[in-house]
Amino acid sequence: MKIIIDRQKINTRAFMANFASVGGLLLLLASVLIPLFLPGWINLSSILFVIGLGAAMIGIYFANRWVRKPRPEESLDKALKSLDDHFHIYHYPSLPCDHILLTPTGLIALEVVNLNGSFSYRNGKWKEAMTIGRALRYIVEERVGDPVGFSQAIVEDLERRLEGELKGEFKIPIRALTVFTHPAVELDIEKPTIPVCRIEKLRKQITINSERLSSETYEKLNAYLERATVS
Questions:
Q1: Which of 18, 33, 66 is the last residue in one of the domains?
Q2: How high is the mean pLDDT of the chain?
């Protein structure tokens, strides 16, 4: 499998997450020390405390997304490493989907959820079993939201973009797939409108029942997605 990834985007966002985290902690430390050495500056201390707390929480939130390992692209690459070179995966293109897999028969938009916990999906609604640990991390971690609904919106957006890019010459089969990458996640899924799976089941979910793309169409898609990822 060929991997195309925007390393600059990852490095930039990881740097910003670390900068916000460390900067916020330094401001918190300053807010504690100022009253001890400069009692007349108590108002500044309060301001620094609020700013520092906010910056630290924002930094930790994004560090969980861009710094903590394994990152989503690492989990996807490991799960799909046995695929041959007819499969290309694009990480963090300038598109509404962070991960797109080009297969010989079409595209798969991968919506990744990297959360620990128990999640259920019934009657079109997601629910999360709230534990003490999850409650403590809730402010600084992503929410599950509605990955199924979001994936459907991604497919519609990609269809519009590709229709404009290819000028309506080809109808590209596009599937959406929601994959949970955390090794300890528990899922109870009932009749989702798109496939939902754990990372270890991903390899079995990436087939598209369609005719093989022509070499011309395949190359046009590859060129478009590469430009969107590394340009």
A1: 66
A2: 87
